[in-house]
Amino acid sequence: MENCDGIRRRIKISPENEPNERATERKLGPAEETKKSWNVFAMILLSFYALLLYGYLRSPIQPQIPEGFSYIELENEFELNDKLSHGKRIYNLPGAESIVEVDDESGVLITGLLDGRIVKIFPSKSTGEIGAGRVENLTSSTIEIGGQSSRPLGLRLRSNWLYVADAVYGVYRVDIVTGQIEMLVPAEEFLFANDLDITSDENVIYFTETAKDVPLSRIAYIYLGGICNGRVFRYEISSGKLEVMATGLCAANGIQLTEDERSVVVAEGCAYRVAFIELETKETLRTVNLPFAPDNIRMSGDGVHMWVAGSHVMTPVGFRVHSMTWLKRIVMGLLEYQTLFDLASNLLLFEHNVVAKMDPQDGRIIETYHDKGGKLTSDVSQMITLSDGRCAVGSYSADFIVLLDLQ
After folding, report:
1. Is-contact 381 98, C-beta < 8 A?
2. Where are the beta strands (DSSP E) in 37-134?
3. What SS3 class is residue 208?
4. CA within 13 Å, CB half, 242
5. How many CB atoms sit inside 10 A of residue 261's CB?
6. CA geometry: angle 260, 285, 78, nearest 5 deg
7. pLDDT tens, position by position, 121-163
8. Which one-letter DSSP state was computed for residue 332?
9. Residue 146: what pLDDT?
10. pLDDT higher than threshold 70 for residue 14
11. Is there a contact between 298 and 253 (Cβ–Cβ < 8 Å)?
């Protein structure tokens, strides 16, 4: 009799018979797989919309479209050319936004720089060429009226007094012989002085405030946001009286008195136009739309016309983006200021500089001078006619000024 206990039975367990936890899991049907995919998609979409809402609510400003903002084609008097791209650069003058020439046949130029200094630029000793000589400080970067570095923008010269619109300190004047500084209108009742002009009797100063609640350090918000609360002030030197002459201006920038001194012409940078404002009534007589963002305005060499200088010609794509206020609000809420500034500078603002020759009687644009691609100029802020017949072109950011021959 066989002993069953003595028989060892080896049972081979096949892979099919091995315990498998996966086999116990229930497989999802097609409908359930689709539902799961839609749930994931919904979560992603919800997160995306939450991010957009966060940016929208976090935005420091509410962008708007300036009234009358329009797209201007580069045709007729605005037709593209290269007249602003022939000349020479004078380097080591960063942010020379405004330039004046001393009216004593010395050929000395004066300009304000990014670091706060105001400097004299002498003619070349060897050739006498204006703008090609040594550079000498007229003021230091930290002027006597305060500890913060100044930022001189608009300049005007009357006799030996250089009048300055300073984005940090306000309005003051500097004796160009002694370097003495006299504060006229400290930045207490306004925030961001940009440019100025002075009556022929040298007693009344008209100056612009770009925005009443946004400083120079946040200027991208003004332009991208279409902020229109800039002002024009009137300051009487003899009495010390300060008066608001105009409000609601869109990035008020350059200012120029008309020959009869009955009106001022003001650049509205983020609205791409200039406005003619009658001083007696404080009413806007007319506006002139431009294809570029205007900066400073100065009389031309003939004493009849005005130079309206600016940059960043509006493209069709740019015009559509500027009109999408909801998108700009989201972007401004999501990005830190410096990132936003760099993005706008590199992607939205194309290097295309323009100076328009304008008839101050009716605002008619006679012709324009272009430098598409910044072959010679960059971020153009002003153009003046020099005593040697050439023009000096300033920039609010470049490391140079340009000496231009328009002939």
Report:
1. yes
2. 87-91, 99-101, 109-112, 118-121
3. strand
4. 14
5. 15
6. 90
7. 999 999 999 999 999 999 987 665 566 778 999 999 999 999 9
8. H
9. 61
10. no
11. no
Q: Which two tokens stand for residue 352?
A: 């295309």
207: β partners: 196, 233
Rounded CA separation 62/224 (Å): 10
Taking residues 218-239, what's their average pLDDT? 96
Give the separation between CA 258 and CA 17, rounded to whole angstroms.
100
Specify the DSSP class assigned to residue 114: T
Per residue in 329-341, is it b (16+ CB within 10 Å) or e — as a string? Answer: bbbbbbbeeeebb
Cα–Cα–Cα angle for 104, 105, 106, rounded to 5 degrees: 90
| Number of residues written out for the chain | 407
| CA 9 vs CA 14, 17, 19, 248, 381: distances in Å | 16, 17, 21, 100, 99
Q: How far is CA 128 from the centre of its chain?
A: 34
* Encoded tokens for 128: 């006498």
Q: What is the pLDDT of residues 240-259, one digit of tens each?
A: 999 999 999 999 999 999 99
Residue 356 bridge partners (DSSP) = 308, 368
